[in-house]
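**Reference record**
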Amino acid sequence: MNAMVLASNTGTYDVESKVHPGNGEFLMNVAIGTPPNQFYAIMDTGSDLVWTQCKPCEECFDQSTPIFDPSQSSTFSKMSCSNDLCQALPSSTCQDGCQYMYTYGDYSSTQGVLATETFTFGGSDKVSVPNIGFGCGADNEGNGFNQGAGLIGLGRGPLSLVSQLGEPKFSYCLTSIDGSKTSTLLMGSLANANSTLSASNSKSNNVITTPLLHNPSHPSFYYLNLEGISVGSTHLPIKKDLFTLGEDGSGGMIIDSGTTITYLEESAFDQVKKAFTSQMNLPLDDSGSAGLDLCFKMPKDTKSMDVPKFVFHFKEADLDLPSENYMIGDSDMGILCLAMGKSSGMSILGNVQQQNMMVVHDLAKDTLSFVPTQCDAL
């Protein structure tokens, strides 16, 4: 699907935003309204809608910053139902403006009115962008939102920030998920400059690039072409077409900054599990205390462990993950777990697997690049 760009936003915006780890999510710093109100929003490449909680709230979760009050902003404007962005919503009704309802894969949801507002992004030069279409959410429910004040959709559909800014390139670099240091999300020419800088600072000078695929059934997602997986020195005997995107729109693998762990199609996950079990030389922990599918008992006072290598073989790109991007240890609990789970159908590359990598989405070339990078040092 071609991204629609609002006529008022066809300038070139070099957007920079601080990104920091939350509880399984990564949060962006954004300001909204005139005068600008700072808030944190979940950075999500797996959805499109940009939204924040708004007064008056019918059902709102706790957030660390004040809830946005549109009556206090001079640039807030409700969107008419004839607007292209209202038409692009998966579900909307027309009463006192364009009313939306938007749900996520974990059954969280937001509903309210679609509006336009000025968004201000930080960095060395603050950039204010007028007339960004966003959801002013009065009824927001679910477990997924208990840390930000909303969500910034960075998918491919017309409602996303990427499409509204009309910038064909963006990049982000995620710091360690259990750390406290920040990194950055960049759009426009900044993403170009930073991916070059990152390549020159890269731990291995290794930029790997793989094609992005389109799925007409789910046009918002960034699909990757995963051809195989290796654990240790074993190239797993996974059926060649297991991760292929089906003609009916099923299957395939997406990359999603808003999902924590990676989910692999069940039969592939079973093979990964089997390979780790045979190569780890540690007893299995079946207590289920970590809530993950595969855990091992770790000897007491262990500070470091040798674990098998893990490689995703994408088309034209082998992504050799550092061990902290797929094994999660808890020395207090004495367990070491694989940060992956099983899914039926679509597979998802989550944010744990993307730590300390510059991830560059180039929508003009339809490619995705990974550059191993110490993200908190950029």
Notes: Confidence is low (pLDDT under 50) at residues 1-10.
